[in-house]
């Protein structure tokens, strides 16, 4: 699949729009590689916390990242127009799930990434299973089989 071809947002994708800031840029004038982790984090916070709270739903809490992978496809430059992070679930298990991301505009994918998140009991300081309500929320974004 050509990641640079324009794709309409699918129903299973969460869309988070953001603007680049001057502080995001490196000496070459494009967004610093490390900054993309911040964009992904902001998208996850919107997906699992802010959006549900705004809708009167219970946010999904108690998750930690166990793995990140990022592929840099092309430089992301400063722009007055927003970019977006499209996020969806590729696999859901009892105590973990995998997210896929694209940082893109209407024409190009600049970054593709994957994260594995695990359910975590903060008080007990150990892994746990997702509740049925959490799993139902996570599965809203599960990509249908191709």
Describe this structure in words.
The radius of gyration is 16 Å and the shape is elongated. The two termini are 13 Å apart. The longest helix has 20 residues, at 35-54. Strands 1, 2, 3, 4, 5 and 6 form a six-stranded antiparallel β-sheet that branches. The model is unreliable at 1-10 (pLDDT under 50). Helix content is 19%, strand content 34%. With 146 residues, it is an alpha+beta fold. Strand 5 and strand 6 form a beta hairpin.
Number of β-strand runs: 6
* Secondary structure category: alpha+beta
Measure the end-to-end span: 13 Å
H and E order = EHEEEEEH
User: Percent range for helical residues?
Assistant: 10-25%
Counting copies of identical and different chains, the oligomeric state is single chain
The residue ranges in which pLDDT falls below 50 over 5 or more consecutive positions are 1-10
- Strand-residue fraction? 25-35%
List the total number of helices.
2
Major sheet size, sense and barrel closure: 6 strands, antiparallel
Task: Round the mean pLDDT to the nearest integer and report it.
Answer: 91
Q: Rounded to an integer, what's the Rg over CA atoms?
A: 16 Å
Envelope shape: elongated
Concise summary:
By secondary structure, the protein is an alpha+beta fold. It is built from 2 helices and 6 strands, in the order βαβββββα.
């Amino acid at each position: 699949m050509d990641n640079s071809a324009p794709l309409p947002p699918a129903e299973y994708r969460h869309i988070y729009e953001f603007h680049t800031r001057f502080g995001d840029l490196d000496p070459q004038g494009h967004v610093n590689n490390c900054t993309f982790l911040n964009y992904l984090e902001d998208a996850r916070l919107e997906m699992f916390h802010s959006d549900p709270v705004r809708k009167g739903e219970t946010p999904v809490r108690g998750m930690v990242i166990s793995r990140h992978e990022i592929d840099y496809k092309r430089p992301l430059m400063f722009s007055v127009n927003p970019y977006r992070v499209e996020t969806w679930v590729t696999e859901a298990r009892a105590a973990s799930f995998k997210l896929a991301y694209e940082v893109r505009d209407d024409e190009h994918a600049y970054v593709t990434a994957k994260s594995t998140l695990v359910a975590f009991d903060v008080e007990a300081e150990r892994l746990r299973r997702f509740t049925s309500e959490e799993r139902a929320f996570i599965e809203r974004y599960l990509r249908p089989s191709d």
